[in-house]
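Continued from yesterday's entry.
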Amino acid sequence: MTETLLAFFKALADESRLKIVGLLAQGERSVQELATLLDLKEPTVSHHLAILRAQGLVSARAEGTTRWHRLDVDVLEGLSRRVLESPAASETREPETWDAKVLRGFVDADGRLHTIPASRRKRGVVLRWLMTGFAEGRRYREAEVNAIIQARHWDSATLRRELIGHRMLARENGVYWRLPQDGWNEGGAAAP
């Protein structure tokens, strides 16, 4: 497997071969057409095609005295899939955390929360995510708190109460501030 992938990358590690693959992706070409389009000599193009054929990326068919070359897209897709599925690729990818999975399920691509989770544990993940909008040591007026929350979800009243109930925000006389994270009640029952 590794040898096949190395040979594949070596075959594509040349600018002229990449250009040939690009041109063949558009349709069949003869050596003469490729030589003209790439401003290369025909023997040079033939050499590059032989390397690509050895990897199974290019096939040829004869029509009279002309050989027409085409890109084998299925082979290219298969090799790409094997690259992505290779142990080396999976080792470099960080596993997705539970928090990230929860956020992916409740936050859209624009960074807006589309639903408040019913599960307390999932709601804790969302509340932690909301708290990234609040700086430590800063005091906020209620209107500011609402604006920060509404940038992510329309129901600022419910989420503001949840943040207070989970001991993430404190409130006194209409002023709010972020509490230390080690005191947050993130997944259990909200504080009375």
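--- second protein ---
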Amino acid sequence: MRSAASQRKGKLREVAARKADKRTEKKRELAESAILTLAQIGYANTSLRDIATQCGVSVGVIHYYFEDKVDLISYCVQQYKAEFVAKMETIIESGSSRESIVEGFTDGLVRAIEEDSDSHRLWYDIRAQALFDESFRPTVSEIERSLIGIVRRLLDRLDAKGIDPVDAYTALDGRLRFCLQQYVEQQKGAIPDFRSAVLRLFRSLGLPAA
């Protein structure tokens, strides 16, 4: 049988774990609310008070979970990008042929624009900010490494050994950012043009395109 002291320690660990889980969940809830405000009007135009109002809490509550606006925004983008990377990984791994992998990957990029354009806008916003504000650079570097990693895995699955992952990533990223701009401007044909451009890009790299 466990001793009384051991049982107390076990209960304390359980309480600490529950508190940590609740804290993590609360941070996620705040981030989900904050990203709506941040993505709509941008980093520079958003204050912590704006974010607190959107979240329905006080500025003090925001500060309890995040050091400052940079910490909050970095957390928001990291959470979203982690989900995006996981989705794209699933698409890459579930493809049964080179053609189906390319088609699924292209569809995944299209859905990212159609369903999560605000989150992507925030990503491009802080990536630009990182050119001037070094506090964003660790987060941006970490996210870019994960995105390049996804493209590297894509090329591995397509057996495209002669293609540099960074070259492929920057080509795809540039096209996605351009489409996002057109989509936000509600330009007609932005999504079909993007899909066609991505498939042309795959073909130019010598890869199968559905």
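Helices lie at 4-41, 48-55, 59-65, 69-94, 98-129, 137-157, 165-184, 190-204. Residues 182 and 190 are 6 Å apart (CA to CA). Will compare against the first tomorrow.
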